[in-house]
Fold this protein.
Amino acid sequence: MGSLPEPHPLDFDWRFSSETVIEISKLVSKDESVLAVGSQSIARYFQQVGREVALVDRQPFQCAETQIVLDINTVPPPVLGFSTAIVDPPWYPEQFSTWVAWAANCVGAGGTVFALIWPQLSGVRS
């Protein structure tokens, strides 16, 4: 499947530690399909353990079997039929809100969205 490029801030490519990925994965029931929005490490882990997952990311070289390459900031959300989204949005309040809303539209009514944010920013409102 190839190797990952070196992460670079201009690519918005931030990767979770293995321990963090495992803890995040525990939030999702084993029978739920997952849309990993900007959360490449999550997508690769779920793929590795045989879970139904698709990655949405603008950087095409993420070594994910199922990846939708697009820029969330410029493309309307498609209806994808996933029950859960795990979103790792940019930290700026406006982009955070845009990404979470985009993911919520992808999973639709009754779906679950987990949005990851730095603890010191958890009280930020947009």
